[in-house]
Amino acid sequence: MPSWFFGLQFRLVLGFTLALVLALGSISWYVGVAAQREADRFQRQMAESRAARIEQIVERYYSARRGWTDLQPAIEQAGALYGWRIVVTDREGRVLGDSHLQFGRPWRQARQGGQLFPVLSEGSQVGSLAIAPSDAPEIAPEPPLSRLVSAVNRSLLWTGLAAGATGILLVSLMARRVLAPVRLLGSAARSLGQGDLARRVQAPGRDEVGELARTFNTMADSLQKAERQRRNLVADVAHELRTPLSNIQGYLEAVKDGLLQPDSATIDTVYQQVLQLAHLVEDLRLLALAEAGALRLNREPDSMVEVLRKTAEAMRPRAEAKGVTIALDVPPDFPLVEMDRRRIAQVVGNLLENAVLHTPEAGQVTITAEVAGPSATVTVADTGEGIPPDLLPHVFERFFRVDPSRSRATGGVGLGLTIARQLVEAHGGTIRAESTPGKGSRFVFELPLSAPGSTHEHRG
Ligand code: ADP
Predict the structure, then answer these.
(1) What pLDDT sits at residue 409?
(2) The 3-state secondary structure of the chain, one letter per residue
(3) What would the mean pLDDT of 201-221 be, rounded to a whole number?
(4) How far is the CA of 33 from the centre of ligand 1 (A)?
(5) Which atom of ligand 1 is nearest to the CA of 386?
(6) What is the rounded average pLDDT for all residues in the chain?
(7) Residue 191 has pLDDT above 60, yes or no
């Protein structure tokens, strides 16, 4: 089958043509039938009134003369006038006058198809009158009305054909015009599929096709953005991997060249770099899993209080070494939260680590837990340096660091908060950051609570 056969334009025109043929066909059939019916009715009425008139004439003729004398010329005249064969017979059936006497077939043969009327005079029958269609060309027969009907049918056919052809032409032009943007869209989609993500289409119309074009452009925008993000991600990952790798390379080369002793201090330094590298790779793996929605969570009702207390304890030595205090403000009957304990501990640990890191000596980090409606809200607030308002919206983005040089020195690559957000969202929760530069920051995350009524006391 040729490809145009499957094209929308061909199908539209075909559909329209079929509809048109059907409509015109049924209209002309109906008009034809109705015209024929009317013509038949009219012709019947005409014949009836003509017969009545001829009958009247014949009866008057008989009454005026009291007999049938010289009937023949009068009958011939009437026959010529009406274009019908008129025959008058007496009561015994003998022909007294015949309009076609000279031309037609003998009356006996021609009488079939004629109408017979009695001729009455003063109440008694004096003869019979027969009227039949003219059977001789010399007396021009009346033109049948069916000719009018066929003329009507013919003009209907021609008008229908002309209207149909114009309609088909208009529809194919319209289909072409309507489908032009669809074709453009098709070619744009092909280019997009072949990797030209910058390709867009014009979407001027407010109709469905215009809407489709706009949707296409939005989709292309998202694809382009995703592609850009993917490229940036690869570049960022390569960049972050390069730092510890080139450090390791530098140390090993120095050892190889005899510039550095392969003693335990050197090995320890290299080992730290390897740990950092492994940590980075693990973070990336976790992030990839979470973003793909493939992170498996072992969620069960668990004690948030315990998680917060343990994480704070683990962080306390580092905080104290810096002169930062960690305060825990959690109600003891805090309800259980449906969560993967290890992952939420990772989130809290990350927030706490950031808070301690960005809080100067004599500062304070406060962990608060509250129940707010159907969720548990945990806040990690510090009295640290804070985050500039213009950078605040970016802190949860991958590889984002407020001060790249400083964070690199501490080993942070800007993945901690991204992972924290992914983990919280995987739990059906939300996380946000608030900050006043110079005064401190607050990181707040909310998790849905487990079934009401279960508190951490129930765990025994
Ligand atoms: P990193 O692993 O580098 O710490 P994060 O994703 O945890 O990355 O944090 C991103 C950036 O947000 C950090 O580089 C830091 O500058 C900023 N930040 C995070 N927490 C705080 C905080 N409590 N106070 C000030 N700045 C913070």
Answers:
(1) 55
(2) CCHHHHCHHHHHHHHHHHHHHHHHHHHHHHHHHHHHHHHHHHHHHHHHHHHHHHHHHHHHHHHHHCCCCCHHHHHHHHHHHHCEEEEEECCCCCEEEECCCCCCCCHHHHCCCCEEEEEEECCEEEEEEEEEECCCCCCCCCCCCHHHHHHHHHHHHHHHHHHHHHHHHHHHHHHHHHHHHHHHHHHHHHHHHCCCCCCCCCCCCCCHHHHHHHHHHHHHHHHHHHHHHHHHHHHHHHHHHHHHHHHHHHHHHHHHCCCCCCCHHHHHHHHHHHHHHHHHHHHHHHHHHHHCCCCCCCCEEECHHHHHHHHHHHHHHHHHHHCCEEEEECCCCCECEEECHHHHHHHHHHHHHHHHHCCCCCCEEEEEEEEECCEEEEEEEECCCCCCCCCHHHCCCCCCCCCHHHHHHHCCCCCHHHHHHHHHHHCCCEEEEEEECCCEEEEEEEEEECCCCCEHHHHC
(3) 88
(4) 89
(5) 25
(6) 88
(7) yes
CA of 274 to the centre of ligand 1 (A): 22
Identity of the highest mean pLDDT range in 103-117, 191-205, 265-279:
265-279
Pocket test for ligand 1, best of 401, 406, 435, 439 (most atoms within 8 A of CB): 401
pLDDT in tens, 158-172: 988 898 899 889 988
Q: What confidence category does residue 407 fall into, taking pLDDT thresholds of 50, 70 and 90?
A: low
pLDDT band at 150 (very low <50, low <70, confident <90, very high): confident
Here the tokens at position 273 are: 């770099």
Give the residues surrounding ligand 1 with Cβ less than 6 Å away.
350, 354-355, 358, 382, 384-385, 387, 395, 400-403, 407, 412-418, 441
Binned at pLDDT 50, 70 and 90, residue 4 comes out as confident
The pLDDT of 54-71, averaged and rounded, is 89
